[in-house]
Amino acid sequence: MKSLFYRHHSIIVAILLTLFTGYALLDVFVIPHEYGDAVVTPTSAVTVTKTPFCSDDNPSGQTENPDDKPEDTGLSEPVITDNSYRDNNISVVITEYRVCNTNVYVADVTVSSPDYLYSAFAKGKYGRNIKEATSTTAERVDAILAINGDFYGARNNGYVIRNGVPYRKSSSKNEALAMYGDGSLSVFNEADISAQDLLNDGVTQVWSFGPGLLEDGEITVSARQEVGRAMASNPRTAIAQVGENHYLFVVSDGRTGDNDGLTLYELAEFLQGLGAVTAYNLDGGGSSTMVFLGEVINNPTTNGWNTSERSVSDIVCIGYRDE
Question: pTM here?
């Protein structure tokens, strides 16, 4: 009799543990948790000079024509083409390259003020498991250009400072990227400085993914370095700085028969060849997406090999914000 009781007791305990584990997984990965409204308030020509980027090929993308660079024309309305946008404050020129058997999309961005480079959260909310497609978030905030961010919602730590507002102050072991009020970008180790000290220093944005790719124009990743759990070559998303208020937004394809994807080192070497001084790796893989004036430019490969957008936590974008 006692043996039967213990057997039933063990079965009940096993069922309860299974139910609890299932709920815990849903709570972490599926059930949305809103932590508050996201506050959205503000706080040259490219020439490829370094080749080859791979052992077996060179980039075949065309360099920007200096004649296409925007001039101070006093335009009151933007001038828009299939691959460019320019007005009095913002210039975006998109060029497609072929690098290491991979399509790479580079948006060369110049702004009159760093306030035109900002972040936006999925559904306008900060929290866990709150996600939407990069193109959906970009459309909601009326972004001219957008790429996916660091997918902060997939982790419980790592600094989250967006548009001057601190949302998460718990550090991680990541190399993070800080954007200061003057528009300069800097890679740092979160263990070396607190979120409050960053705010005190005038930091307006922090993205926590990594690793850093370039510092002072020098490559900072090794040929074998990789993001945890990632394949050797992947779709990639990166942001880089060339000079004052001059940035590169970069997304590569990958994981398809036509696109191998890039290693971190190949991405770093490519950006170095474009003249970048500071460069940082954002969330990649199926998240990698570039949106220009409402259109997805690259070929996102979510859920392994399916060509479609993955829903993500946040974007980095260029455009005008409501004050």
Answer: 0.80
